[in-house]
Amino acid sequence: MISTEQALQIILDNAQDFGVEEVPFLESVGRVLKEDIVADRDFPPFNRVAMDGIAINHRYFEYGVRDFKIEGIQPAGSPQEIMDNAANCYEVMTGAVLPENTDTVIRYEDVKIDTLMATVQLEALEKGKNIHTRGKDRNEGDVLIPKNKIITAAEIGVIATVGKSTVQVAKTPKVMIVSTGDELVEVSESPEAHQIRRSNAFTLVSLLEKLHIKAETAHITDDKEQLKSKIAGYLKEYDALLFSGAVSKGKFDFLPEVLEELGVEKLFHRVAQRPGKPFWFGRSAPSNMSERDAEQDKQNNTPVFAFPGNPVSTYVNCLAYFYPWFAKSTGYEMKEEIVILGEDVVFKPELTYFLQVKIEIKYGHLVAIPVKGNGSGDLASLVEADGFIQLPQGQTEFKKGNTCSFFRYRN
User: Which helix (H) or strand (E) holds 236?
Assistant: First the structure.
């Protein structure tokens, strides 16, 4: 049995690069950017009027002039006008190009307009007021968005403004999610007293959809030959396999044995944690391949995440291990979220404890309040929580006010 830290490191060491694809920019939200987005011109690209009002040449204000003849109007979206007489003014609209021969904008609230004359009602005026100068935000050629960022609505606006109708993003892996067990029936079926409906597979589907992975699902009964036959095909067809169930010590938990017979290299089985201890992880490196060749061929191997079948165990392991593997594979950095423990917790086994919690905000801090569930089989308890905190192995008492890592699944 290995520690959670060792398990995570092994998984991260087996991250893979699935390449890059180009997609329409509006379909890129939530994806990992794989190119720098560069300014195609200065930001803003011209001296931009920031307030509706009049534009003047500031030196005439300094001379004591307060009455300015209106020479013309500069609307937004029109080519730059030229003010012929520097002693006059131009009416200007927000977003317009600043007319030539003007250098200061006075908002309408500080001006009295009488036919073609504007009277400034200010005693002091700063030169350059209410002008967003060319290149103030960014210069042509500047990197506006570095690659390996998650694209959000903020990035979409920038991508659009530099004229990129398509954008390069990390490809997502082709994933198969497999549930096992004779006790499971489909969602639409009415289970017998000894049966339950499939749920873990669809929980995993939803968790992966948050990563923009469109996973497929399958169900295999507790039949060794059927398991072996179907998994052999999945290993060839998919970039990653996720299993729920059949990895513990039961008489019908055939999965570790089947994977070994199919040449999947076991990298660990059993992690010192609760819930989710029987977690199995490996990759499909052929057994007759040398260690050097296997390392070079790692990109062609299929990683296998075999989670225990209890629903909370499946949930925890997906968040704590598959999510970081995906982040490393696609090139972005997952940021650790830290919260404050809101109650004393006692946990005596020598294991890392993933504890379900609700999050409250107190005095500007995120505070984790434990949710009392009934073990790793209590699927309904997931609805009451916002995520899991990770309490480290080696301690039995955790005091209110301690800080800990938080795995969020509800925003």
Answer: helix 224-237
Regarding whether 312 and 235 lie in a shared domain, the answer is: yes
List the pLDDT tens digit at each of the 411 positions of the chain.
999 999 999 999 999 999 999 999 999 999 999 999 999 999 999 999 999 999 999 999 999 999 999 999 999 999 999 999 999 999 999 999 999 999 999 999 999 999 899 999 999 999 999 999 999 999 999 999 999 999 999 999 999 999 999 999 999 999 999 988 666 666 676 767 766 556 678 889 999 999 999 999 988 887 888 889 999 999 999 999 999 876 876 555 788 899 999 999 999 999 999 999 999 999 996 544 455 555 555 556 899 999 988 889 999 999 999 999 999 999 999 999 999 999 999 998 889 999 999 999 998 999 999 998 777 757 678 889 999 999 999 889 999 999 999 999 987
User: What is the secondary structure of 297-350 as a DSSP string?
Assistant: TGGG--EEEEE-SSHHHHHHHIIIIIHHHHHHHHT-PPPPEEEEE-S-EE--SS
CATH at residue 288: 3.40.980.10
Please tell me the total count of domains within the chain. Answer: 4
Coil vs helix vs strand at 92 = strand
Q: Are residues 92 and 190 in the same domain?
A: no
Helix, strand or coil for residue 256? helix
Same domain assignment for residues 212 and 118: no
In this prediction the pTM is 0.86
- Judgement on whether residues 318 and 254 belong to the same structural domain of the protein: yes
Question: 46, 51, 52, 86: which is closest to 69 by C-alpha?
Answer: 86
| Rounded distance between C-alpha atoms, residue 129 and residue 107, angstroms | 9
For residues 205 and 292, membership in a common domain is answered with yes
Q: Single out the residue in 278, 298, 330 at which a domain terminates.
A: 330
141 shares a domain with 128 = no
**H or E element in which residue 105 lies:** strand 104-107
Domain range holding 148?
23-43+137-170
What spatial distance separates the first Cα and last Cα of the chain, rounded to whole Å? 33
We report the CATH number of the domain holding residue 161 as 3.90.105.10
- Are 176 and 325 part of one and the same domain? yes
Asked if residue 150 and residue 128 are part of one domain, the reply reads: no
Q: Is the dihedral of CA 394, 398, 402, 405 positive or negative?
A: positive
Residues 6+ apart with CB under 8 A from 276: 307, 308, 310, 312, 313, 314, 316, 317, 320, 354, 376
